[in-house]
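Why do we bother with a discrete structure alphabet at all? Because it lets us treat a fold like text: something you can write down, compare, and reason about line by line. To make this less abstract, here is a complete entry for Exocyst complex component 5. Read it the way you would read a sentence in a foreign language you are learning: slowly, and without expecting to understand everything at once.
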Amino acid sequence: EPFVADEYIERLAWRTPGGGSRGGEAFDPKRLLEEFVNHIQELQVMDERIQRKVEKLEQQCQKEAKEFAKKVQELQKSNQVAFQHFQELDEHISYVATKVCHLGDQLEGVNTPRQRAVEAQKLMKYFNEFLDGELKSDVFTNSEKIKEAADIIQKLHLIAQELPFDSLMGFCCYPLSSPGKYHDLECQLIQEFTSAQRRGEISRMREVAAVLLHFKGYSHCVDVYIKQCQEGAFLRNDVFEDAAILCQRVNKQVGEIFSNPETVLAKLIQNIFEVKLQSYVKDQLEEHRKSDAEQYLKNLYDLYTRTTNLSSKLMEFNLGTDKQTFLSKLIKAIFISYLENYIEVEIGYLKSRSAMILQRYYDSKNHQKRSIGTGGIQDLKERLRQRTNLPLGPSIDTHGETFLSQEVVVNLLQETKQAFERCHRLSDPSDLPKNAFRIFSMLVEFLCTEHIDYALETGLAGIPSSDSKNANLYFLDVVHQANTIFHLFDKQFNDHLMPLISSSPKLSECLQKKKDIIEQMEVKLDMGIDTLNCMIGQMKHILAAEQKKTDFKPEDENNVLIQYTNACVKVCGYVRKQVEKIRNSMDGKNVDTVLMELGVRFHRLIYEHLQQYSYSCMGGMLAICDVAEYRKCAKDFKIALVLQLFDTLHALCNLLVVAPDNLKQVCSGEQLANLDKNILHSFVQLRVDYRSARLARHFS
């Protein structure tokens, strides 16, 4: 612990008798002073003793430092001497190594010709045996030394082939240059390789393959290996899985046997593709090629997909430098005859299948498709008939049938989706956008033109005239279903067609075609919106049948018990149903556009209807109640303009009941101030008491 002088003195005083106030003892300063003096003397003695010890240790340390420095100098001198000896030894070793290398070169120069001479002597010995016709050497008679015999015969065969036949030596060596013994030994080696393969002796196969590598029959050895590898490998129904398993097994084995494993494995894969797979594909496709286009296309897509998947698995193996091109060529060789005319088969099948789906639907409805004009004078007649109520020809009674089917649409889209998938897989990349566009054109023809457009045309032809009684407005159901179907069509356009054409010039062509379809349908939907005339016509029939003159000029002014007229109740009920139907049939801005048009026409109808009657005071109150109910109905439109029109109409109806003295004040109110004075006057004229001089004077 650190030394603190104050604490040390306190402890010393505490231990000294009379140094503190312990147990009532009196404080004795002399005794304490004496104790301090003695203690100081002891500390001085201790300090002198410690100082002498420190000086002694310092002297000893200086002495040892001098000795250590002297020892280090001696070691440095010894190290320099050792380094000099090491350099001398290294130079001596280098000198000896140079001498040894030179001696080795001299020995090799002498030994190499000697070895060649020995080998030449052996070959001459074997050559003499061939000339004598008797092979006595153990290397030729012992079957276990077939490797050495093969090496000898290979060398003798090469020598014999280099000698001209017209020379004496060449004539003598003809037995060696002829294929007889060479071929026999080659056959023996191949037979030995075959037997070793059947026994599963990898090491023996490797030895024989290494010997045959220098023979002409090496490729035949590889063929035998490939053939035997496939024995019993294709026993299941799934030839692609069998091929993958076989290649996986051979890939592990071939590197242990052959010096060029990638070449052997590539040759095996080529054999599998050109023999097994090509035969299997041909059997599967030719069976349905002319008789069943649907099954043919399904099989073609499935087989091509499985073949490319097998190719992807084989890409993991070492097949040489450009294995991608190698496998692509193998696949192309199998399917080229089927892919050349694929799109024609696809379009033909899609056309017949789509036509069958549509015809089956119309047959189920007992409907015979009729030819309905889609442009020119017939469109003009239809517009005129709806807008002017002129009988330009009878409308078609569809009996409430929209001639649109969700099931038909799903089937057509499903067929097209599968066609897009096949097109993506089977088309050449350069032809993919063009082929996808042709499939899209088929979808447009049968879904948009033959189904949706036909239903719209039929729906337009089935719209009743505005003066028809109890008319059923089925065209809105057609609009609703057509809208739903087109959303499905648009989804398939984005999900399945766009990825195929997104980076090609066909994109703009497809977008333009889609735009033309939308515009064509919108024109017909706009024409069909004239069903609003039918709605207004229905309202007119209700008002004409239900509204009575006595409703607004009751005989007993004091005994009116109804809040609004029966005609108002029925019209509002009808309008609410039509508003709901329009909301369910359309979406987006189309809803607001149609409801605004209906609301404006609805307001005009009620306005003109109210102009037909005279109003007593109580009748005017009842008219205000009717308009208030119409205004509630107008709120369902959720269109500001329509609500504003009915607010103004409600304010106009107040002129029917307001006191004559207050007419000018009411007419100058916020809602009526901006209206034409003739409109205000026309409403005031509807009052029963209008002809009274007082009322006429006030209004003027």
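What the structure line is telling us, in plain words: The mean pLDDT is 80. The first helix runs from residue 5 to 15.
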